[in-house]
Amino acid sequence: MTRGQKIRLDVHTHTVASGHAYSSLQEMAHAAADMGLELLGVTEHGPSIPGTCPKLYFKNMFVVPRQMYGIRLLMGCEVNILDTDGTLDLNEEYLNRLDLGIAGIHAVCWHGGTKEENTEAVIRVMQHPKIHIISHPGDGSAELDFERLVLASRDTHTLLEVNNHSLAPQRHKAVARDNNLEILRLCKQHDVPLILGSDAHVSFQIADYERLWPLIDETAFPDELIMNYSTEKFLEYIL
């Protein structure tokens, strides 16, 4: 689908280091450059996901050049929210080493509670200065109050993500479409920006938002609230 504006960035991607993805760091960066992106975020899974990289990976990220093949690279992590206290699976030592902090709930390592408790946990995480994005809040891994999250997003400048990968039929996320529509409508209602996430696990998925465009069209979601169209606007907002 051809869109009116050009996508400039994709900041939620995974390499082979995450254990269940299929492209190397350099392959991902090269593909992003070939697509004409300006900014790529590489955000490997936090250590509670089976098979992912060890904590040492995040400690050693200083060796990676932040300009590669003509694009800017942000090295980060998709940190796991573990429980209703908002516990994260990387501590401050490691979070402080990240260029970009994404936090999300994954069923394999999540110990949840009521809708209110789950929502409080995510809001607590959004208040952390090293967390910039909440990944796939609409995928159904936890029941959440989306209006409260949208208002917290506005207050903390922590972006909510609508996630293309969650809508893949193979993921069997039955509520993801309706939940993401609700997030889009609420962000539009409250004039709160959000970010599109490819959640790419192979280089060919970088900046692939094809499952999201119909939802954006259905909600008539305004371009000015989509952070993927401007690298400068995105960086100014989160940093």
What does this structure look like?
This protein is α/β, with parallel strands linked by helices. 30% of the residues lie in helices and 15% in strands. It has eight helices and eight strands, in the order E-H-E-H-E-E-H-E-H-E-H-E-H-E-H-H. Strands 1, 2, 3, 4, 5, 6, 7 and 8 form an eight-stranded mixed β-sheet that branches. Helix 5 (146-156) crosses helix 6. The longest helix is centred in the last third of the chain and has 15 residues, at 176-190. The protein is globular. The mean pLDDT is 97.
Q: What's the helix and strand layout?
A:
Elements: E1 9-10, H1 25-34, E2 39-45, H2 55-59, E3 67-68, E4 71-80, H3 92-95, E5 100-104, H4 115-126, E6 133-135, H5 146-156, E7 159-163, H6 176-190, E8 195-197, H7 213-218, H8 231-238
Parallel strand pairs: 1-2, 2-4, 4-5, 5-6, 6-7, 7-8
Antiparallel strand pairs: 3-4
Helix pairs in contact: 4-5, 5-6
Q: How many individual helices? A: 8
Overall morphology: globular
> What ranges have pLDDT less than 50 throughout 5 or more consecutive residues?
none
Major sheet size, sense and barrel closure: 8 strands, mixed
User: What's the β-strand tally?
Assistant: 8
In short:
The chain is built from 8 helices and 8 strands; from the N terminus they run βαβαββαβαβαβαβαα. The protein has helices at residues 25-34, 55-59, 92-95, 115-126, 146-156, 176-190, 213-218, 231-238; strands at 9-10, 39-45, 67-68, 71-80, 100-104, 133-135, 159-163, 195-197. α4 (115-126) runs parallel beside α5 (146-156) and α5 crosses α6 (176-190).
